[in-house]
Amino acid sequence: MFDNKVALVTGASVGIGRAVAHKLAKGGAKIVAVDINEKGLEKLKEELSAYTTEVLIFAGDVSDEARVNEIVADSVEKFGKIDILVNNAALWRCWSSFVETPTEEWKKFIDINVMGVVYFTKAVLPGMLENSYGRIINVSSVAGVYGNANMVHYSATKGAVDAMTKALAKEVTHKNILVNSVCPGSVSPSDNPDMDYSEPSVLSFMGRTGTDMENANLIAFLASDEASYISGQNIQIDGCRKKQ
Ligand SMILES: NC(=O)c1ccc[n+]([C@@H]2O[C@H](COP(=O)([O-])OP(=O)(O)OC[C@H]3O[C@@H](n4cnc5c(N)ncnc54)[C@H](O)[C@@H]3O)[C@@H](O)[C@H]2O)c1
Question: Is residue 192 predicted with pLDDT exceeding 90?
């Protein structure tokens, strides 16, 4: 399904990003995996060797624009192009009331969750425009749709990602660059080695969390040519969430 395609996945060491790297590699894609967790990347590369050896790993912080540009340039030099960009890396483990959330924390979340998406998209888009082909999938959250109490700054960053997704799609869809976001609800712990692991959750009418692989399945579909008429959408994957 992804033969001759090159996919760059950020935050690929654990969780949804890791499952996406597995799913796309299994489908035949060449993988560029990016994360600040270098050990996790090495482990991932070893895991992916079950399907492919065409894997590049890059340690880097998505909020460091110079490093992002370097990673994309190196990837294009080695693999020739990037067809699929999955902006998945983000900070989300934060629970504090609005008044107790320091300004510095807001800035950190905006730098990583919003500007990280901006930097990678800016670095990759010119090549996609040249090739008249691209799939950009931003991993957002139901927090950006409904807003989560005690996660106001996180919710705001994901709302920004959703808006960016819709607006950018209107600029580039006619060039066959399809831009979508997925909004997961509660997902099982991302350091769980089992990508199909799920646990009970009162937050969805299914009564359970989503698995990393369930999220990866949706992302892989949007990355594929089967999703050729879908762009500018924010798609929720939340087991029919009880809206908070
Ligand atoms: N897990 C959930 O319940 C849930 C729910 C809704 C949305 N999401 C979204 O799904 C995505 C993946 O989350 P997850 O829970 O699978 O994984 P996670 O939060 O455990 O890890 C994300 C990965 O990103 C990496 N990362 C973090 N900051 C980085 C940075 N500055 N530069 C490079 N890499 C960085 C981490 O090292 C990690 O490997 C995120 O965008 C998150 O907001 C998760």
Answer: no
